[in-house]
Design a protein that fits this description.
7-stranded mixed beta sheet; UDP-N-acetylmuramoyl-L-alanine:D-glutamate ligase; Protein-Tyrosine Phosphatase, Chain A; 6-stranded mixed beta sheet; 3 domains
Length: 486
């Protein structure tokens, strides 16, 4: 299928050397369960929700199920204290007896005696999970919130879905911004947080849907791909969840595995080796494709903007290129993603807590240090997802300072201190507050402090948002909460 080309996209045939995309193995009991498309099915059913979570998707799903007349059991390994904010939202339904809780542990019987299990995609290696295996053995269907969402979208042809190892949130938000700011009805959901199940009554047939999809979400989306699929890039990530890079890659590939004739795949730089199905329009982005003069720092964000423009035009061809580029230039960014905290005494501070992989941290360093790394103080470390952190530790001699925290701090430090020069630039801090204090004490005018940890937040923080919020609070408190400079 041919497509009109612009300066920021290239149409090429699938590479001959790669194999066709293989569809995932479909189990009618797991993932995309057909009967769940009917809201009436849920009335009177016993539904177990595995994992309430902290980003709103779990609570939204539970409320939605209760509104359909389901009897909901929400089970989570966390305690009530750790889930206090989420339980406050559910308390009215708990008081009415529509929702019951099983916290601190899971019970096999909760999975084998229900009519349906809805699993939080954060549950790692679900194919090995003994509770989910028990549900399957008992004939209980299993699905996820994102499956329920896509089954209810009125028009697949109005859906664009975005995945990638880095930049997927920003690129997704850019696409949403382009569509919304040019007067199109649009809804943004998926991995960004919350659930579109809360907004189904607002989604109309002429609405455009922007879905950010994680590799875990895609693992469960058997048999479905969007009309417009976007892959920003691919690098090692979430090995703790997938067990191997091969499984991670194949889960990502699910976004294009079931595309149809006339669909489009927007493939970011370095993704040209991915084969697409016959009749799918390939829009290949190159390193040179960038949108200039955007608000966000860094070459990678200029590339993200070009990908977003190409995807928005593929979704709605009535959108012209100049208008789309003008719109994306006004996008101001997302919290915790190279967020400008402020400038005090000539010292600049950036919160990139959402950066949970080495690849995304390297991009952040390139973004804020385009003129060099020797003025950057980097805070890195956290929960170990199984990624190779050697590239982060190896940067120590080039940085103004490297401050390690969390469980992975010692591993990063081992690389950083392998040479005397690296050791001179490294400070073991363990906690974020110590890292912020140590870095500010060493900073001079013109220096930059960047929180971009290359690791997940679990262990010391509930999530990356809590980590980023504390970082901002610590920095502002140090300077007496004075308003930052430009």
């Amino acid at each position: 299928m041919k497509m009109d080309l612009t300066d920021s996209q290239t149409h090429t045939p699938p590479p001959a050397a790669t194999q066709p995309v293989a569809s995932p193995c479909v189990n009618p009991q797991v993932g995309f369960v057909p009967e769940l498309a009917d809201n009436a099915w849920f009335s009177g059913k016993r539904v177990t929700v595995m994992g309430i979570g902290h980003f709103g998707g779990g609570t939204s799903t539970i409320r939605w199920l209760a509104s359909l007349g389901a009897d909901v059991l929400a089970t989570d390994m966390s305690s009530a204290d750790k889930l206090a904010d989420q339980l406050t939202l559910l308390q009215p339904l708990i008081d009415k007896g529509h929702v019951k809780l099983a916290l601190g542990a899971h019970n096999v019987s909760d999975f084998t005696t229900s009519d349906l299990v809805i699993v939080n995609p954060a549950v790692p290696k679900p194919w090995e999970n003994r509770f989910l295996r028990a549900a399957i053995a008992a004939g209980v269907p299993i699905t996820t919130e994102i499956n329920l969402v896509v089954q209810r979208l009125p028009r697949r042809e109005h859906v664009v879905a975005i995945t990638g190892s880095a930049g997927k949130s920003t690129t997704s938000a850019m696409i949403h911004h382009i569509l919304a700011s040019t007067g199109r009805k649009t809804c943004f959901g998926g991995n960004i947080g919350g659930s579109l199940l809360d907004h189904m009554n607002q989604i109309q047939r002429d609405s455009f849907i922007v879905l950010e999809l994680s590799s875990a979400m895609l693992h469960w989306l058997h048999g479905w791909s969007p009309r417009i699929a976007v892959v920003t890039n691919l690098a090692e990530n979430h090995i703790d969840w997938h067990g191997s890079f091969d499984h991670y890659r194949e889960s990502k590939r699910a976004i294009i595995a079931n595309q149809k004739h006339g669909d489009a795949a927007v493939l970011g730089p370095g993704m040209h080796g991915w084969a697409t199905r016959p009749g799918v329009c390939r829009i290949e982005m190159r390193d040179v494709h960038q949108v200039a003069d955007i608000h966000l720092p860094g070459v990678h964000n200029r590339r993200n903007a070009a990908v977003a423009v190409a995807a928005a035009i593929a979704l709605d061809p009535t959108l012209d290129h100049a208008t789309a580029e003008s719109a994306v230039r006004k996008f101001s960014g997302l919290p915790h993603r190279l967020e400008r905290v402020g400038t005090w005494q000539g010292k600049k501070f950036f919160n990139d807590s959402k950066s949970t992989t080495p690849a995304s941290t390297l991009l952040a360093l390139d973004a804020v240090g385009e003129s060099g790394l020797d003025k950057i103080h980097l805070i890195a470390g956290g929960y170990d997802k199984g990624s190779d952190l050697t590239p982060i530790g190896a940067l120590a001699p080039k940085l103004a300072g490297l401050y390690t925290i969390g469980a992975t701090g010692p591993a990063i430090a081992a690389v950083a201190t392998a040479t005397p020069e690296g050791a001179a630039h490294h400070t073991a801090c363990e906690t974020l507050d110590r890292a912020v204090n140590a870095a500010i004490a060493r900073m001079t005018s013109g220096d930059i402090l960047l929180l971009s940890t290359a690791c997940a937040s679990w262990g010391q923080f509930t999530n990356y948002e809590a980590r980023g919020k504390l970082f901002c609070e610590l920095v502002r408190a140090h300077f007496g909460a004075q308003p930052g400079e430009a």
